[in-house]
Amino acid sequence: MSTADQAILQQPTREEMRVEQVLHALGDPVRLMIVQALAAAPEGVACGVIPLPVTKSTRTHHLRTLREAGVISMRTEGTRRMSTLRRDDLDALYPGLLDGVLAAPR
Amino acid sequence: MSTADQAILQQPTREEMRVEQVLHALGDPVRLMIVQALAAAPEGVACGVIPLPVTKSTRTHHLRTLREAGVISMRTEGTRRMSTLRRDDLDALYPGLLDGVLAAPR
DNA sequence: CCGATTGTACGACATCTGTCGAAGTTCGAC
DNA sequence: GTCGAACTTCGACAGATGTCGTACAATCGG
To answer: Looking at the domain covering A19-102, what would its CATH class be?
Structure first.
């Protein structure tokens, strides 16, 4: 590995984020479940421990969609991938959006 | 016409609205333009006057998607269809969501 | 009544998207 | 070194979705 090795997977900067992409990422039932699970665990969660009604590969697909939209951040930790909500960036760009989504009646 | 004639087109009640459907509706560039245009005109806007890069039929399609998700309300007024944002319902169900979306950097 | 204006309905079509299974990769433990 | 655990990658595939053009419907003004 190089000395500049990054444990954090590629994700858009705050400037690169687009609201329609964020909304599209949030507009899927499985991805919304992931976001709700991450909201309850500010320190991050291993992808695998979130209960989801899909297979591993589909899970990977949704996590990448969320990451590329800028909704979550992922870092490698051993063989685990830890995910966290990018709360600060989302709140800065779209104040109230995330809270509104999380406040939705279940 | 019957005495119970309704000028307001069918739309979900507040209880019937689902957050993932709302987010999905908002997650399209054209529909987002519509919402931004409606946000600037609380009294309602005729569908046709919103500048959009699509044809009439596509416009109708997007307006129906927004209406069926509960984002907008439509009523007939002569040969016009007036659309309005369902601000009160959205704010009640998902406080902050709409404001966050509208605050997005253009 | 006629025509113009507005918008909807329908069918077609290319693309996107969510889903899966199988195979590959990376890391930690023994 | 070998095994298992945790994810990713790839290819495939069915269904959803955005788009258009044409045809149809309703309303208002002369």
So the answer is: mainly alpha
* Residue pointed to by tokens 């830890």: A82
SS3 of B45-61: EEHHHCCCCCCHHHHHH
| Residue with nearest Cα to nucleotide D20 C1' | B55
- Scan residues 21-80 of chain A and list those with Cβ within 7 Å of strand C: 24, 28-30, 53-58, 61-62, 65, 76, 78-79
* Sheet strands (E) in chain A: 45-46, 72-77, 80-85
Give residue limits of the domains in chain A: 19-102
Q: CB of A101 within 8 A of CB of A34?
A: no
Bridge partners (DSSP) of residue B93 are none
pLDDT tens sequence for chain A (106 residues): 443 345 899 999 999 999 999 999 999 999 999 999 999 999 999 999 999 999 999 999 999 999 999 999 999 999 999 999 999 999 999 999 999 999 999 8
